[in-house]
Model the fold of this input.
Amino acid sequence: MIRAGGIESDAVVVGAGPAGAAFALNLAPLHRVLVLDRRDGPAVRIGESLAPAARRLLTDMGLWDAFLAEGHSPCHGGRSVWGGPLPVEADTLRDLDGPGWHLDRGRFDGWLRRVAASRGAALLAPAQPLAITRDREGWLLKVETAGRRIPVRTRLLVDAGGRGSPLAKRFGARRTVSDRLVCGWVHGRDADGRQSGLTWIEAEPDGWWYSAPLPAGRRVVAFHTDADLPAAADARDAVSLLRRLSGCSDLFRSLTACGFEPEGQGGFCAAHSSTLSSASGDGWLAVGDAALGFDPLSSQGIFNALYTGLAAAEAADRHLSGDPGALPGYAAGLAPIRDAYRTHLHAWYGLERRWPDRPFWSRRFKVPSPVPGEGGDPRRERGEGEG
Ligand SMILES: Cc1cc2nc3c(=O)[nH]c(=O)nc-3n(C[C@H](O)[C@H](O)[C@H](O)COP(=O)(O)OP(=O)(O)OC[C@H]3O[C@@H](n4cnc5c(N)ncnc54)[C@H](O)[C@@H]3O)c2cc1C
Done:
């Protein structure tokens, strides 16, 4: 693949998160795949609840047994205080796919990168494309890595760069944002060592809380609100977040009972729903968050990253074999996913009617419409902050 004049590949993937890695590990056995990521390893971040149905995707990719050996924690259901003051529990006992999962997110993302490499993908990190130009047979890139600029020639470009859609935006695709959701989070440890295996969610007047036990006795606690509301100030640092948490009845009581001890500074990031005007174009496609960004309430982001990575790899194989309808067909297949997601999200937020006059909730009772100009938080426009 590496020649004197640079690197030759069939597909270059920008972004080695779950979507980029899923794409690469599925296409690499068939074509030459190069993956670039600006980070040399996965970031510390929030985003760990994996839906039970992910089992089917992992099985289709030949990864189920290897996933089980990674030692993530099973998630047996959820406890929510949502739509009323009393907690309600729902379990996964009757789910044919078995339990969901609370991932060690760094381990999961790093594992997917290694699987992609073991199936033949080349990984360059830290690395990012500086210049991208069209040439007769595809694309010519100038890639910056380790202080060098390497020419890379490829037939297909894949935007797996997360919420910033770094490639698709260069090619003129527009990202439409539907709300201003942001998230502040902190990791910690449960001192009592007994974990419930449940995801917790609790609504409050200006947003909602989330907590999940993680492998090795760890836990994450997060607060979600809108970037333009005063409550967002409490999401920006761990001290303010934990102060606000003490006013949150059920979750605070439960975390106190677990002996939750926060560790580190935590993080703050964009968490809005967003969609790309088109997930493919002439010689490129977008996968994962770069194509569709989901509200964390849905716990669908990683599932969507795996699904679109797999579906896009199948489309890429057909495209590279000369099928002109493969890339548009892939993009068209995302429309029903986006529509079903919007309907479900609207229904979920609609269940909480206790604070109809509070802006966070009254905004969500309306039928979703795009926020013009990608909202007011500049971090969101850059797709930054998940870690
Ligand atoms: C607050 C919050 C909570 C969440 N909770 C959950 C959850 O519980 N369950 C769930 O399923 N999902 C959750 N998600 C969503 C989930 O984290 C994402 O959907 C998932 O990470 C998307 O994977 P991806 O590979 O598309 O993007 P990412 O994981 O963002 O990966 C993108 C990669 O691209 C790289 N990159 C970006 N730009 C460039 C560039 N120019 N050059 C080179 N590399 C670049 C980045 O370094 C990164 O490695 C949550 C999201 C948020 C914001």
Remarks:
- The radius of gyration is 21 Å.
